[in-house]
Amino acid sequence: MAGGRAFDVLRKKSPTPVLLLGDEAVSPYNRPDLSKRYLLDQIDEDRLMFHARDHYGGENAAFRAATRAVGLDPDGHRIQLDNGAKLRYRQLLIATGGSPRRLAVPGAELPGIHYLRTLPDARALRDGLRKQPRVAVVGAGLVGLEIAAAARDLGLDVCVIDVCEMPFPLLGESLGREIQAVHETRGVAFHLGTTVAEFAGDGRLERVVLADGTVIVANLAVVGIGIAPTSQWLSPVLGAELANGTIPTDSFGRTSLPDVYAAGDVCRWIHPHYGELHTEHEAVAQNQGMRVAGNMAGEPKPFDMVPYAWSDQYENRLRTVGLASIESADTSRTFSGPGRAMATVYLRGDELVGAATLDWPAFMARITRALRARPGLGFDDRLLAELTGG
Ligand SMILES: Cc1cc2nc3c(=O)[nH]c(=O)nc-3n(C[C@H](O)[C@H](O)[C@H](O)COP(=O)(O)OP(=O)(O)OC[C@H]3O[C@@H](n4cnc5c(N)ncnc54)[C@H](O)[C@@H]3O)c2cc1C
Questions:
Q1: Which of 26, 81, 265 most suits a substitution to test ligand 1, by most atoms within 8 Å of the C-beta?
Q2: Do residues 367 and 307 lie in contact, with contact meaning Cβ atoms separated by under 8 Å?
Q3: How far apart are CA 57 and CA 46, in angstroms?
Q4: In terms of Cα–Cα distance, which of 199, 186, 196 is closest to 163?
Q5: Atom of ligand 1 at shortest distance to CA of 280?
Q6: Mean pLDDT in runs of 10 for the chain (390 residues)?
């Protein structure tokens, strides 16, 4: 998503030719829909694409699909491709995203076990869900719970397993428990505080055995336990700089290597206000891709977007802005709004550093505006009244 958006900026602004390389078979597309509308047959593959394929041709611009970069020679300004070719670059943007973390337990290779990152993954999952299976979702994070919601919308029997005691523990207990309740009301069963010990079955998945001894009958499992940044191919040149696999950059997207930039899920960058950040969210990836491309094209500005993320589960909308995590904050406070609406704000001392809302769009819109306009904003009763519309 970062690379696709960067390409659009560079083809307009770069004085030199732009080449987009991707190891998938298709041109850039909207990944978030893969766990939502796509599983419910509510969006065609054509409409997932950022642009029609012919958008990527033309003067000074080209796209090569199914082509993987496997090595980087920073001194020679060359990248090595999986077909043996070497390409010279003047400037390079690395936006290789991440790939799902695998669950290494007995039976992990049984047919019926899915991961979801790419369009082919989504096709396989959608086809599997059409066979009316009993579904086990491993991981109560954003992708796992969206798949659980889609599977319930399809009328399937669904359970969710997570090693944590609640979904989204970093958002704090109130929101975590409320999101769990949203799913329980829809008939999802949770197995929390435990993990998968084994996938079992005769030639394909039939049962999921948990560490606490529970045996779940399931013939389709989806594992959504996070991603690992796709940066292994850079370890010979970046080595120890790759903390947790992420590529460090400054606020402009520059890495430590000459003329090499990075953006999206694969990087961690210095935010001018919040300091070092790593996010795995589409709005950040797309905006960062565009901003870093602008920097490469000679219009330098730091990437200072206040991070924003979203998740749709059934008709419920979870939104976060800023540093929405109890780990980034000294304290958090939760407020209730109309109906199911709920908001948690995260504070460092008196400073408001982030917020998360469930079904409270007005609160989210106001707090996002406030954080963008006034970084370092103090949180007090007047601001609270403004945010709650009181
Ligand atoms: C199912 C799903 C649902 C999501 N839903 C949401 C959501 O609701 N809200 C939200 O904020 N975020 C969501 N996200 C996260 C969001 O999609 C990511 O943050 C975003 O895609 C990151 O963009 P990126 O460009 O960094 O990486 P990607 O979009 O992963 O793009 C990286 C590309 O690089 C390719 N690549 C990797 N290595 C190489 C190589 N060596 N050579 C060539 N190409 C390579 C990859 O195949 C991929 O095509 C979701 C993600 C998934 C998978």
A1: 265
A2: no
A3: 18
A4: 196
A5: 19
A6: 98 95 98 98 97 91 97 98 97 98 98 98 98 97 98 98 97 97 98 98 98 97 98 97 96 98 98 96 98 97 97 97 96 94 96 97 96 92 90
